[in-house]
Amino acid sequence: MTKASSIIKKYTMTIALVVVFIFFTVLTNGRLVYAQNISNLLLQNAYVLVMACGMLLCILTGGNVDLSVGATLCLVGAVAAQLMDQNSMGALPTILIAMLIAAVIGIWQGFWIGYIHIPPFIATLAGMFLFRGLGRVVLASKTVNIQNEAFLNTFISYIDVPGMDTKSFHVSALIVGVAVAVLLTVLMLSGRAKKVKKNYAADSLVTTLVKVIIIDALIIAYCWKLANYKGIPVMLLWILLVVLIFAFITMKTAFGRYFYAVGGNEKAAKLSGIDPRRVYFWAYFLMSVLAGFSGLLVAARIGSVDGNMGNSYEMDAIAACFIGGASAYGGSGTVSGIMIGAILLGVMNQGMSIYGLPDEWQYVVKGAVLLAAVIFDVVSNHKVGKQ
Amino acid sequence: MPDNILVMQSITKLYPGVKALDNVNLEVQRGEIHALVGENGAGKSTLMNVLSGTIPFGEYEGKILFNGSECQFKRIHDSEKLGIVIIHQELALIPELSIGENMFLGNERNGKLGIDWNETYSQATKHLEEVGLKDKATTLIKDIGTGKQQLVEIAKALSKNVKLLILDEPTSSLNEEDSKMLLDMLLQFKKQGMTSIIISHKLSEVAYVADRITVLRDGATIETIDNEDRTIDEDRIIKGMVGRELTNRFPAREHKVSEEIGLEVKNWVVHHPIYTEKQVVNGVSFHVHKGEIVGFSGLQGAGRTELAMSLFGKSYGSGISGREYLNGKEVHLKTEEDAIEHGLAYVTEDRKTNGLVLIDTIAKNTTMARLKKVCDKHGVIDVGMENHVAEKYVKVMNIKTPTVQQLVGNLSGGNQQKVLLSKWMFADPDVLILDEPTRGIDVGAKYEIYCIMNDMVAQGKSVVMISSELPELLGMCDRIYVMNEGSLVAEMSRDEATQEKIMGAILHSDKKGISEEQKEA
Q: Which of A168, A216, B167, B447 is the most exposed place for a label (fewest CB within 10 A)?
C-alpha cells in the first residue's frame, strides 16, 4: 500500500498526462492521435519546451521567474527577420547575429540581477517592456515576412531520405525510432549493471525492464506517427538537443548542482564556496539565450514576425515548470518533470483546440490545472515535512 | 498531598511507525520550576506539543489535568486561555515590527476604532519593566539582540496572564551572562508564585534553577529527581538520560601539539558590513599549531564569529586588514572558494540557516563544499562515487539514517550537525574553525562530536573551537583565547584555565564595569 502510494506520488504528473491524453483522445473521437496532430504537438509547443529549460534554472534559484522572455523572443525574431528582409543577409550569419543579441540581452539581465542584486521580478519586468519596445522599433511596427529558404529549412523542414521515404510513409523516421529505442535499452541496462557491480543502489531488474519497455514503446509509437505524416521534423531535433543538454547540466554536472544549492539555501551555498552571484548570472543568461533561440524557432514556424509575437509566452514557460513539479520556493525541480508539464500543457491546448472549446474557456481550464498542480505540490510536501 | 497545577497521565502518541510518547506521566507542582531533560528525540517537545494543543485532543491517548480539571485542547488558543504559554526555541517574533506590536500580535488591544496604540504601548512597557528590559516598546525587534528578544518573548507571555510558563531551550542561543540573567529571572518569578517548565540540554542550568527534574528517554518517563536543595550532581542526571554512567564527558586525548603552525593571524581588523566606521575586531593576533585545539571564549557579541568568518574568505565584514598565514605561507583569501582551496574550513554556528540545504539529501550536502572531488575534469558528477563517499561518512560519524538519500531536514539536530561536520571533513581542510559545534544537541551526540574533533587533531589538523560553554572549552582545548568587545584580552594554557579566570579576564577588560556580583558566575 505504501509502495503503491509512493509510486503514484512519484509519477503523479505522468499519470495525469496519460489521463488527460486519453480524455482528449476520447473527447475528440480520436482526432488528437491523427499523425498530423501528434507530429504538430511538440512543434507547436517548441518554444514552451525550450524556454522551460531556462526558466527551470531561474526558478531553482529561489522561485524567481523571468518575465522578459516573451519580449526577448520577439526582439531576436525581429532582428533575424529584418536582417534577412532588409539586408538580404544569409541564414547562417543571421542566426549567429541573432544569437549574439540574445547573449547580450542575457548578460544585461544576468548582470543586474546577479551582481547588482536587482530583484529578478523587477529587472525582468523592466526587460519585458524594454525588449518588447525595441522589438517593435526594429520592425518599425510592421509585420515582416521571412522568405529565406535556407533559414526556414534549418528549422521547419522534415528529414526526407531520397529513395527510402515515400510521400505516404517515411521509413527513415521508423528506423531512427527503433535505433533510439535499442540504444536506450542498452544504455539503461548497462547503466544498471554497472551500478549493481559497484554495489550502488539500483532499481530491480523488473522495474528497469518495465520502464525500458514502456519508454521504447512510446518512442516507436511516436516515430510510427511521424513516419505516417512527413517524417522527422528538424525542429524536433533542435528541441531534443536543448532538452538533453539541460537535463545533463542539471543532473550530472557540478555547475548544475549549484543552482539547486543556491535555491535550497543561499547562505549555506555561499559559505560552501559557491558564488551565488555567478549562479544568478548564469540562470538569467542561459534563459535569455534560450528565449532568443525560441525566437528563431517561432519566427520560422510562423513565417513572419510582428510586434506581438511571443506575447505572454513567458507565462506558458513558467506554468510548465510549476505544473512539472518545480518548487515555487526554489531548490527543487527536474528537466524531465518540466517536460511532462510542458507536454501536459501542449496536450491540453491542442485537445481543447481540436475539440473546439472557445478561447476564453481554454484560459479557465489552464488556470485551474496550474493551481491544482501547485496546490498538490505544496500540500503533499507539507505532509512529508510533518512526518 | 502535593498541590499539582498540572498532571499529565499516561500520555501516548503514535506517529506512523514510531511511538513518540509511551505512557508518559508528568506532575508539576504549583509554584515550582520543573525541568524536563532527555536526549534529542526523547519526546520532550512532543509532550509539550500535546500540552499546548499543537497536537490536538484526539490525536493522543491519555489525560491532562490543569488545576484539577480535565482539559481537551484542540488548538494553542485553548491552552493559552487557561494561562499555559509555551516559548519555543526558535523565537516567533517578527523582525520588522516593534516590541509592542509583537507582544500583542494576535491578541491586539482594540479601541473603538481599530487598535488602541496608547494602550498597547503602555501595557507593553509595563511588562517590559517586569522582565527588566529598558528598551522602548516602539523599538523594532531586528534592532535588539537575541538575548533581549528572548526577554520580549517572556514579556509577551506575561501579557497573556501566564499561569504555567514553558520554555523550550531558552538559553540555547544566549551567552553565559544572558543565560544567568534569564535563569535568575525565572527564580524571581517563582518567588512571585509562577510555575514554569524548562526544557534544556544545559545540565548546569537545570541543576541551578530546577526544583524537580523529570527525565525522559525514548518516549518514556524514566524518573523524577528532587533538587529542592540544589545539590544535584550533573552526572546523576546524565545517568538517567543515557541509561548508563557517562564517566567521562570529554573523551581522552593524547596532547601531541606539533611545533608547526597551521594558522596564524596578525593584527586582524574587521569593520561592520553596514556601519562601516564601526570596528568589530580590533587588531587581533593569534596562532594555532598543528594537532592543537584552540578555544575562543567570550560573551555574545565579543566578535568571535565575526573574526572567524572574516578570516574565511571575507565572508563577513568590510574594511578588513591584517595578515593571515596558512601552513606558514601568507594568504589573501578573497572568497569562500579561495579559503576552501587553501585548506581552511568554517563550520557555522547556525546549521539550519547557514550550514545545510535542508531540502537536499545527505549525499548532496556532504559533497557540497568540494563537489569537484567527485567530478571528472569536465565537471561531470560521478553520482555513484558521491553516494559512496556519503555512505562512508554516515558510517564514520554514526549518523542515524536509513539511506544517504534521506533529506537532511528530516534528521534530528545532532545528526544534522554530524552531516555538517561530514561536509567539512570531506572538504579536507588543514585548519577547521568550529563555531559552537555542539549547540542544541544532546549529551551522547556531543560526546561523539568531541571524538571527531580529537580524530581531526590526531591527523595533524588544527582546530579552532568557538564556544559559549566554558566546561566544554576547558575539557577539550589545549589553549584558550578570551575575547571581549572585539579584542583578545587573555590567553591561557590548558593547565592555567578555569571558569573563574576566564570570566575574570572578560570582566576586567570591560571598563564600563559589570558589577562584582555577576563576576561570581
A: A168
Contact B358 A264 (CB under 8 A): yes
B371: contact with A, CB 8 A cutoff: yes
| Minimal Cβ distance to A198: which of B15, B384, B405 | B384
Chain segment A250-288, per-residue pLDDT in tens: 999 999 999 999 999 999 999 999 999 999 999 999 999
Say whether pLDDT at B236 is over 90: no
Residue B105: how many other CB atoms lie within 10 Å: 13
Contact A255 B379 (CB under 8 A): yes
Domains of chain B: 1-83+163-247 (3.40.50.300), 97-158 (no CATH), 272-519 (3.40.50.300)
Q: Considering A232, A265, A295, which residue would you say is the last residue of a domain? A: A232
Q: How far apart are CA B13 and CA B21, in angstroms?
A: 5
Q: What is the pLDDT of residues B105-154, one digit of tens each?
A: 888 888 877 888 888 999 999 999 988 888 899 999 888 887 888 889 98
Query: Residues B50, B443, B217, B7: what is their CA dihedral angle, to the nearest 10 degrees?
Result: -40
Q: Is the alpha carbon torsion for B159, B198, B227, B208 positive or negative?
A: negative
- pLDDT per residue as tens digits for the range A282-307: 999 999 999 999 999 999 999 999 99
What pLDDT is attached to residue B244?
Answer: 60
pTM, full prediction: 0.81
- Burial degree of A302 (CB within 10 A; 0-12, 13-18, 19+): middle
- Residue A253 has what DSSP assignment? B
Asked if the C-beta of A272 comes within 8 angstroms of chain B's C-beta atoms, the answer is: yes
Tell me, yes or no, whether A287 and A308 share the same domain.
yes
A386 part of a folded domain: no
A260/B360 CB distance under 8 A: yes
Within this chain, do residues A92 and A186 fall inside the same structural domain, yes or no? no
> Helix, strand or coil for residue B66?
strand
Parent domain of A206: 160-232
Q: Provide the domain count of chain A.
A: 2
